[in-house]
Amino acid sequence: MIYNILLYFLKHYFVGSMDMTLWEDDCVFADPLSSFGGKGSTDRFRRNAANLGKFLKNPTLKVTSFSVRGNEITVSWIFNSVLALPWNPVLAASGQTRHIVNLKTNRIEKYEESWKTKPIEVIKRLFIPT
Fold first, then answer.
1. What is the C-alpha to C-alpha distance for residues 28 and 101, in angstroms, rounded to an integer?
2. What angle do CA 6, 10, 12 make, to 5 degrees?
3. How far apart are CA 40 and CA 18, in angstroms?
């Protein structure tokens, strides 16, 4: 099952359509700017991604590597998009996401994103017109 999840990510990773049935309902989602979990957290993540998606113009996401170790899938990536705001700022970051799979349910119970790019640098770019 872990390999099925991995293949799904390589095809649809974030920028594509996301199959939220791969996540536990109370999955913990964490990135350098926020963290949340508990009942309904997967719906919250889906809403957050959908809201962000409304602002992305021609997003690109390149998966640079992945590994599977026990119940962990780690995906390294580079993301870039212009945001649909009047000054057309660029949202860009590189990093990795670690997915912890519950082997009893074959669903992701923790989504932990880290960035090579410092979060403050990502935020600063949002104020620079392109």
1. 11
2. 110
3. 16
How is residue 61 written in tokens?
Answer: 């996401």
3-state secondary structure of 113: strand
Which residue, 97, 96, 80, 99, is CA-closest to 88?
A: 80
Residue 11 structure tokens: 């095809």
pLDDT tens sequence across 30-78: 999 999 999 999 888 888 888 888 889 988 888 899 898 999 999 899 9
The arrangement of secondary structure in 2-6+23-125, i.e. its CATH architecture, is Roll (3.10)
Does an H or E element contain 70, and which? none
Q: Which amino acid is at 85?
A: L
CB atoms within 10 A of CB 109: 18
pLDDT digits 0-9 by tens, 88-103: 999 999 999 999 999 9
